[in-house]
Amino acid sequence: MNLHFADYLVIFIYFVFVVAVGVIIKKKITSSNDFLNSNKSIPLWITSLAFISANLGAQEVLGMVASGAKYGIMTVHFYWVGAIFAMVFLGVFMMPFYYGSKARSVPEYLFLRFDEKTRALNALTFAAMTIFSSGISLYALAKLLEVILHWNFDLCIWIAAGIVMAYTLLGGLTSAVYNEVLQFFLIVLGLSPLVIVALQDAGGWDTIKTNLEPQLTHAWKYMGDADANPMGIHFMSLIFGLGFVMSFGYWCTDFLVVQRAMIAKNMSAAQRTPIIAAIPKMFMPLIVVLPGVIAIALTKSALDSGDYRIPTDAAGGYDYTMTLPSLIAHYYPSGLLGVGITALIASFMSGMAGNVTAFNAVFTYDIYQAYFFKNKSDKHYLNVGKLVTLFGILFSIGTAYIAASFNNINDFLQLVFSFVNGPLFATFLLGMFWKRTTGHGAFWGLVAGTLAAAITHGLTIAEGKGGWISPIYPISSGMGQAFIVASFSWIANFFTTIAVSLVTKPKPDEELRGLVYSLTEKVYGTEKRWYLKPAPLGIILLIITILLNIIFF
Amino acid sequence: MSEKLNQLSFIIGVFFILVALVLLIGYATTTTLKHGINLYSGMAMMVFGLVMVRLKA
């Protein structure tokens, strides 16, 4: 892939704009709240697009296109099963507690609802995970640019980290959020032409359906038997593992995404943020799953008229990760090629910035202020927030080089991340809807859930991974293994939390008002018009989601 | 103008107008960029950019 002047110009314009956004926003940053929490002043359309963009890093974009090529249309389950329902649940039921409690972060909510040790456990694991995720984004960006453009790996790391540092240090969370929105439009407008030309080249959707195995073009039809579908999972595992545990665990408890809703102007906007975000999320498979399905269709011999092929790896198998870059290289001429590459760079950098801004809020509020210096001036916390951003970026660079030294560190960290996130939703579900849940119950439930995840992983093996205790239960795909690990961790957390809570003393009701459903006055919103209310909006979205599942059954 | 610069929709609009100009001017003046997909994408980005610039806060 060779870039020309026009391509470099597009990339340059993007870099100038992201830094300019930071410079413009810098004038508004006068307090730690401005820097770390955007002073809860961001309009609804921006919080909504930032909400889904926080989950639209290049690893997700490349990963979903790769999954589209590997598993076919079943990949839409990550959207129509694994996202929309959780996003609506977050908006309708959980945001009133996050926003209404005045907590500045998810760990702080855990402190208010439970106790200090539960907050500490969540804050420390989350802070570590965000730094590693940020570093892996940086590593993946540099590696991709090295492979497809033959750019220098070290230079890519330092330039990308330098630009992210410039705009996050200047404008804090607002700057990161604004750039996430720019990235969203860049991905949609930058990749839409690719979908159109590739689909045309493949002969349209009907031709693809005719030429591909039916397992790759149906979302549900072959899920009654785990051996009959490319993901190798039964629909019950999918619904419980992905649709409930992993999906709700991520969308409803991960501070990286929840933070985008917590910075909305008011409760109504905070509740509608994930719900409005669910609208573009519902249609994202057109941009990030469909290209993968088209790529595998073009690669199959039945559609041999074109010359596109998914690249192969050293072992001769398809290198699915390279599906999107190879489609861009094949279909985009100079000019639009620059836009496509910029979209990839933007999503990597945005993924990194999102992690760093979530890290600095959690570190400053839930570790530094909570345990080291409680009663300092606001200016002190503003400076600490900036310093933490700087160190966050430097740690990310360090992590990127660690990732470069280990072949499987990404897999390992994703696994650890699922160990930590998988059980978390049980803690929130019980904490928000069962007032008897205690701090000890929440803490030991989280510990038990994480241990259960590790043990399940050690006893199952899929695609050569896991089975480190004893590989007694083989699973045909890594994806299926992840769902089963998450399910066991959730169940272990749920029942341990209940058991420990029943034998320990709960907080008095007065301390739980505004934090638990049964003790919180129900506020049905100040919005008069039905289409501005979260519940009716959510119901409409759920109906459309069910219809989409039926159409692609 | 300074008020406009504080509007994200304006910034995004200007960004896409500039990218569209690169594609459209490149299409009109160079052989390297003379591809239909650059023209159509440039036009779509120009329309999107103008709409975003015109949006009120």
Q: What would the principal axes of the Cα set say about the shape of chain A? A: globular
Q: Give the radius of gyration of chain A.
A: 23 Å
The biggest beta sheet of chain A, please?
3 strands, mixed
Biggest β-sheet strands, sense, barrel of chain B: none
Low-confidence segments of chain A:
none
* Residues in β-strands, percent of chain A: under 5%
Number of strands of chain A: 3
Class by SSE composition of chain A: mainly alpha
Helix count of chain A? 22
In total, the number of strands of chain B is 0
Low-confidence stretches of chain B: none
Q: In DSSP terms, counting alpha (H) and pi (I) runs of 4 or more, how many helices of chain B? A: 3
Return the string of H and E elements of chain B.
HHH
Subunit arrangement of the protein? heterodimer
What string gives the helices and strands of chain A in order?
Answer: HHHHHHHHHHHHHHHHHHHHEEEHH
Describe this structure in words.
- The complex is a heterodimer of chains A (553) and B (57).
- With 553 residues, chain A is mostly helical.
- Chain A has 22 helices and three strands.
- In chain A, a hairpin with a 2-residue loop joins strand 1 and strand 2.
- The radius of gyration of chain A is 23 Å and the shape is globular.
- Chain B is 79% helix and 0% strand.
- Chain B has helices spanning 2-5, 8-29, 36-54.
- Chain B is elongated and about 40 Å long.
- The model of chain B has no long low-confidence stretch (mean pLDDT 89).
- Classes of the chains: A mainly alpha (553), B mainly alpha (57).
- The interface between A and B is medium-sized, with 28 and 25 residues.
